[in-house]
Amino acid sequence: MKTDTLLLIGIPAILFGVAQMSKPLGMRNNNPFNIKYNPANDWVGQTGQAGPFAKFDTMVHGIRAGFKLLNTYKTKYGLKTPLEITSRYAPTHPEEPSNDHLAYAQFIAGRLNIGINDTIPNSKWFKLGETITHYENGGKVPSHAEMLKGFELSQG
After folding, report:
1. Comparing 9-18, 33-42, 92-101, 126-135, which segment has the lowest mean pLDDT?
2. Residues above pLDDT 90, as percent of the chain
3. By CB neighbour count within 10 A (0-12 exposed, 13-18 middle, 19+ buried), where does 32 fall?
4. pLDDT, tens digit (0-9, with 9 covering 90-100), for 82-130
5. What proportion of the chain, given as a percentage, has pLDDT over 70?
6. What share of the chain is helix, strand, coil (3-state, %, to 5)?
7. SS3 state at 93
């Protein structure tokens, strides 16, 4: 009887764990923008870190933080083109040779139907966030409802 019970409980638990591990890190951390952890940032819902990245209690809080970060890039640093944003967001440097900010900028520009040096229209900043989460997570993205809620919360 105990073996049957263990099998009934153990197999779903193992399958859940495998399913979780098959998700991209950004999705597992509720951080689809893959924001790097910085103890100076006190993001709403931030619960700690996993490696170099922040972890959030909900997907919506992680999305909110990502849109807040993009807004800071635009308003504080004047970064308004795909190339300017990716140069800061995912810079190419020796410590992270997998970051190719030019390829990233080209991906964003293609999804937004603009050039890499074109200013991103205000009407496309939500789409920019969707595009970044798509790129960061290999095509796996949060739900549209979660993206909208996170975007709305970032505007306040």
Report:
1. 9-18
2. 77
3. buried
4. 999 999 998 887 776 677 889 999 999 999 999 999 999 999 999 999 9
5. 85
6. 55, 10, 35
7. strand
Alpha carbon distance 47, 7 (integer Å) = 33
Contact 135, 104 (CB under 8 A): yes
Q: Between 59-75 and 82-89, two packed helices, what is the crossing angle to 10 degrees?
A: 120
Domain spans, the chain: 25-154
- Gap between the Cα atoms of 123 and 80, Å rounded: 13
pTM for this one? 0.84
Q: Kindly state the tokens that stand for 21.
A: 């591990």
HSE-up (13 A, CA, CB side) for residue 109: 19
Q: Is 18 left (phi over 0), alpha (psi -120 to 50) or beta?
A: alpha
- Looking up tokens 């990716």 gives 86
